[in-house]
Amino acid sequence: MPRMTVFATALSMTVTMGLGFGPGAGLASVAHAKPSQGRISQAKAKKATKKARKKAARYSKKGLKAYKRKRWDAAINAFELAFEHDPLPDYLFAVGRAYERKGELFKAMEFIQSFATLADDPADKEEAEEVYQMIAKQLSKTSGEVKVDSKPSEALATLTAGDVKVTGKTPLHRWLKAGTYQLLVAKDGHAPHSGQVVVEPAGSVERSVTLKTDEQAAEVEAKAKAEAEAKAEAKAEAKADEEAAAKAKAEAEAKVKADEAAAAQQAKQEQEEAAATRSMLGWSALGVGVAAAAGGVFFGMQAASSQDTVKGYVDEEFSGSWGQVKGAQDDAGRQALMANVLYGSGAVLAGLGAVLLFTGGGDNALVIGPPGLGPAGLAWRGAL
After folding, report:
1. What's the order of all strands across the beta sheet hosting 204-210?
2. Each residue of 89-113: pLDDT tens digit?
3. CATH entry, 142-211, from 3.40.50.150, 2.40.37.10, 2.60.40.10, 3.90.1170.30
């Protein structure tokens, strides 16, 4: 069929329906986009016979008729059958426009890309770019560009989001609806690469992946494993050191507490022993003082008796020699002196005993009463 028959008809119908052109990404920016290689190879390798071209022309007429009636699936099917019989790029353009009118913009861009790749006339490429720009403008409202490249190339790239799954060989260029996609890039003999791609409306995302061979991946994995084991071992050692330090600290604190408790107990015991000693000494001094005072009373009474004897001699109540009088006076003096000494000693010892008792109980307490008397003893407790 003539060069512009399908091309011009489809384009003119689209313009008549009110579709305008606007700025977009443009085919020039996606010259590496790699549309369907099978379709392009078929177009380059196959030369249609005269009979095949006639069949293609008949399918083309059916496609145009369906296109005018807005029967998009029938138009797409007819144009694809025309391309199978006579692989002219024009049929791909017509299929792309039918998909665009159907609302399947991603499919439309794929066929427009295929057409631009096969077209030889610069005017055709320019026309295809205008259509591409128009579709890109529509897609940019809800979709974004995704470009995935790899080293080595020709790897299979898969983008998945829910029920949506897009695959193609790298370098891959697609427009995808906005969302979060899981990316998987795989090639025989290489370790697969996985990641995440976030597509935003009117946005553009590029991913460049370097695939490692299986041997390189094994080395990286072994290295990562060794590093993880070393890290885990270091962490375990650090934890063991921390536990040992904590244990040593706890033991040291426990020893300090034990030493403090032992020192406190020793001090208390020494204080109690000192208090007991002072109490014993106090009672002893008090007892001796009381005994001395009693002795003083006794000798005082003896001195008084001797003094009465001397007075009796003087008053001539008693008869006796001067020697007897003198002896009675001397006895009274000695007895009075002894009584005074015992009184003084008893007072001092009794005072000392009282002081020892008052200050020897510990904890600012005093106890008066012989040791061992218990409740029967006299006990006073109070603050000094």
Report:
1. 172-177, 143-151, 204-210
2. 999 999 999 999 998 888 898 899 8
3. 2.60.40.10
